[in-house]
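User: tokens in, sequence out, please.
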């Protein structure tokens, strides 16, 4: 009576919560779905249809993905740790936790993440290859000091890290050392012929 009243605004989901209130914990998930998805969709479109399940990757696509991961991690000293790390990164990039299968909707994210990781592993392979070659030639054969080579290796790794931070890594040295032909070919170590760990 004569006093100013403060207006309170309630959005649509919360309005339905007030009307159909239930404090039972087991109903909360159902309420979230009805109030936040079903009812607003009916209001906007006049009907609600359940979204079809995403189509999972075909066995052939999954085999190709496993082969690609093997290509990236094969030859690393800690190949199992690399393998685990790559699969973790792919799961994170797609937002699809294990054991959910990857779907065709994930292909763009999978492709982008595989390119990012392949640039890193290619650069690491190249740096390690050059380091071992120099150690054999300059230290083992010519009895030179190893410290300069270690320092050079550290600088290369720092440069690699900086390039990764700047997004400038290039896939330019993998073929130089004949790895592509060996990796892509049907070798006895290929994932088609050997078991592989896929922590997905």
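Assistant: Sequence out:
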């Amino acid at each position: 009576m004569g006093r100013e009243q403060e207006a309170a605004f309630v959005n649509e989901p919360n309005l339905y919560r007030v009307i159909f209130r239930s404090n039972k914990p087991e109903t909360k998930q159902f309420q979230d779905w009805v109030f936040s998805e079903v009812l607003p969709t009916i209001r906007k479109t006049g009907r609600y249809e359940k979204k079809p399940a995403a189509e999972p990757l075909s066995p052939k696509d999954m085999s190709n993905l496993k082969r690609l991961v093997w290509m990236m991690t094969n030859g690393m000293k800690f190949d199992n740790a690399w393998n685990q790390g790559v699969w973790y990164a792919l799961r994170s990039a797609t937002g699809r936790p294990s054991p959910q299968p990857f779907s065709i909707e994930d292909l763009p994210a999978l492709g982008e993440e595989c390119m990012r990781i392949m640039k890193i592993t290619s650069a690491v392979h190249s740096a390690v290859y050059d380091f071992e070659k120099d150690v054999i030639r300059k230290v083992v054969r010519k009895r030179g000091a190893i410290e300069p080579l270690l320092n050079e290796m550290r600088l290369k790794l720092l440069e690699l890290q900086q390039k990764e931070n700047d997004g400038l890594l290039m896939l330019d040295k993998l073929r130089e050392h004949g790895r592509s032909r060996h990796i892509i070919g049907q070798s006895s170590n290929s994932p088609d012929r050997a078991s592989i760990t896929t922590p997905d």
